[in-house]
Amino acid sequence: MFILIITSVFLSPFEVYRAFGEFLGNFAGDNALAVGFNGYIDESAERINGGIGIPEVMMAILTFFLFAFDTKMVQKYPYYEYHRNYAVIGICAYFIFRNNPIFSSRLAGAFIVFAYILIPNAMYVVSAQKKALIHSFIILLIAFNFIVFSSFKNIRAGRFTYDLYRNHLLP
Predict the structure, then answer these.
(1) Half-sphere exposure of residue 112, counting CA atoms within 13 Å on the CB side?
(2) How high is the pLDDT of residue 162?
(3) Where are the domains of the chain?
(4) What stretches in the chain show pLDDT beneath 70?
(5) 125 near 69, Cβ under 8 Å?
């Protein structure tokens, strides 16, 4: 688990996913999967402060939860091994696709959800003191994400305003 995460961190600057896109293009150039993958492959993101941001810190926190509670979770929490493996795939995929905003958020996000499932489930295997600490961390994380979301004005930038939202249930 640790070797996979470290390897993906070191492979991050080399953008190895581009080689996979070339392979898909040569193997099945007119396939919808290859066309879709190669359509997003040229997207890139410039980092404001170099290389470490909020997503990298969150991946470090999720990795901490994976290693800190691994032994107890294996013993007491059913299906932990599956959630852990999916979380590791998500963390590795995030670092491999880190320079591409589409792949690092959408592709890796489907697997990283399992890491966020593990955080509250870690309260199941710890003492009352640590349980309160994890609970406080979850509340602070939600507040922090709300503040970051609103400070970047993502409600308007992402077009999440109520006047643009139309459905059949609400007028």
Answers:
(1) 20
(2) 60
(3) 2-126
(4) 13, 17-51, 153-171
(5) yes
Phi-psi region at 55: left, alpha or beta (left = phi > 0; alpha = psi -120 to 50): alpha
Q: Which residues contact 18 (CB under 8 A, 6 or more apart)?
A: 41
Give the DSSP letter of residue 153.
Answer: T
Residue recorded with tokens 């643009």: 164
Q: Tell me the per-residue pLDDT of 28-58, one tens digit each, with 9 for 90 and over.
A: 656 555 555 555 566 555 665 556 778 888 8
Cα distances from 105 to residues 35, 36, 98, 99, 113, in angstroms, run 19, 16, 9, 10, 11
